[in-house]
Amino acid sequence: MSLGRAIATVGGFTLLSRVVGFVRDIVLSAVLGSGAIADAFIVAFKLPNLFRRLFAEGAFSAAFVPLFARELQGNGRDEALAFARQAQAALLLVLIPFTLLLIPGMPWVISIMAPGLRDDPSTFGLAVEFGRIAFPYLLFISLASLYGGVLNAVDRFAHVAATPVLLNVALIGAVLGLTPFLPNAGYAASIGVAVAGLLQWLWLLAACRREGVAMTLVRPRWTERVARLVKLATPVAIGGGVQQISVVLDVIWASLLPVGTISALYYADRIAQLPLGVVGIAVGTALLPLLARELRAGNDQSAMVNQNRAIEFGLLFSLPAAVALWLLADPIIRVLFERGQFTAEDTWRTAGALAAFAIGLPAFVAVKALAPGFFAREDTRTPLYIAIAAIAVNVALNVWFLFGTTLAHVGIALASSLSGWLNAALLAVVLRRRRQWIADGRLISRGLRVVGATAGMGIALWFGLKWLAVPLSQATVTGAFALAGICAIGIAAYALLGGALGIVKLSELRYVMRRQPGLRSTDPGEPQ
User: In tens digits, what is the pLDDT along the chain, a chain of 528 residues?
Assistant: First the structure.
């Protein structure tokens, strides 16, 4: 499958998931609001999500996919699947005791993750209970992430990209269906998280069976391949999870601020995650197995070209998205969330955080396109060192913003954005010095034209905000139509300027979406 088609497949299903996710967040904000119950649930929900990103989607996938691709190309499907099943056994050997240990130790974990909650015993107690209910999600979603790595490596992206939809549907169903029978909506949402993990695991388990890569259980064995996987995965747990570590740090800082700050950062991050998920995660997911196969086959130049195209694709969408979110932060939050328990003050607080998160959006997408250049070469240590530097800067900026300025929660989001830019810059510099990535003329030319088109779009949005100021100030149907109208203005302006500047040509779109035989696995048994 071509890089363009793979990105489109992952991005399309991710967009569907994000749309359903918006519905989920609208339901959560209306039922949970932005107070103590919402803060407790969000802390509890972030806990298994953190370990999922670090252990499963971050460390495990980044280390597993290149090794699986090597086995697939060098030793065939049967040996590759044998390795995948050994990896599953090793993952279970870690996850089951880890889950059983952290559930009773949840008070200690919440104390570390959100120390400010200890000043409010009732909120702290809710966070502990919600965390114990939701934490089994980690076990199921980690197995699902392994299955997703197998499916992606054999060019089957759709099932994996569609999986997050199940989480959103389960949460919506649980909150609306169970809340009347429970003490509060936080219990219902926590149950929804645990059920979602089970559903996602079963979905990908069935998908693997249908694609002929069934993940049966085997006895855990310490083999050379498993040892190599552990060696590669350990540093990626920090290096690949720098953004998630930053998110946890955000929770720690936010817990020291007034009630509602954690929720505001969560809702703002959810909006910012739309372009990051559709573009950044799609690029990273599609690029890693492709680079691993090309480098394994000795096609270094082709790998560099594909990485340039991935960065170009990321810039094409992330730059205008960042400007749009920065300019439209207030009306977006008002129209989507200001109802029920979510007040005008919550809108103000959340919009400030969203504008700050938007500043780092292009950097977060760039990291998704640059990191596979290391992981595909089985270099997981360099991103680790870069991640440590970014985390240190994040901590320093948070201390300064919180105690040396009046930025408060906006400073927390801004620190994450600035440390994200540092992370992306250092990854690019190291790859450039090693001559493993060199920006070609097309990337430079298209990048400058994207900046020009984005600037023009920003001007159009600014005038649109002035023109629609009154309806955009209302959390009503009229406000929703006004928001849709100004979004249409921005899209039209960017599309017209992009066409005039020649950023994207129809002939190129047809080419990148075409299946390219040269990018397939050489294993004759691989399903195409």
Answer: 555 566 666 666 667 777 787 788 788 877 876 678 888 888 888 878 777 666 555 556 666 777 777 777 777 778 888 888 888 888 888 889 988 998 999 999 888 878 878 878 888 999 999 999 999 898 888 888 888 878 877 767 677 777 888 888 999 999 999 988 998 889 999 999 999 999 989 998 988 888 887 888 888 878 777 787 777 666 665 554 555 666 667 777 887 787 778 888 888 888 887 777 667 666 766 676 678 778 877 788 888 888 888 888 888 889 999 999 999 999 999 988 887 778 888 888 899 999 999 999 999 889 888 988 887 887 878 887 888 888 889 889 988 988 877 788 899 999 989 999 999 999 999 999 999 999 989 999 999 999 999 999 999 999 999 888 888 887 788 888 999 999 999 999 999 999 889 886 655 555 444 544 333 333 323 222
Q: Do 106 and 132 meet the contact criterion of CB atoms below 8 Å apart?
A: yes
Question: What are the b/e assignments for 484-511, b being 16+ CB within 10 Å?
Answer: eebbebbeebbeebbeebebbeeeeeee
Helix intervals (H) in 211-260: 224-239, 242-254
Phi, psi of 216 (to 5 degrees): -75, 160
Q: What Rg, from alpha-carbon coordinates, does the chain have?
A: 22
Whole-prediction pTM: 0.67
Residue 96 CA from chain centroid, whole number: 25
Neighbours of 476 (CB within 10 A): 14
Q: Which residues of 128-159 are buried (b: 16+ CB within 10 A; e: fewer)?
A: bbbbbbbbbbbbbbbbbbbbbbbbbbbbbbeb
Residue with tokens 């390219």: 516
The single residue listed with the structure tokens 């049967």 is 78
Where in the chain are the domains?
Answer: 3-439, 448-517
CB 204 within 8 A of CB 144: yes
Phi, psi of 476 (to 5 degrees): -130, 180
Three-state SS string over 266-284 comes to HHHHHHHHHHHHHHHHHHH
Closest by CA to 319, choosing from 459, 451, 419, is 451
Q: How many angstroms from the chain centroid is the CA of residue 202? A: 22
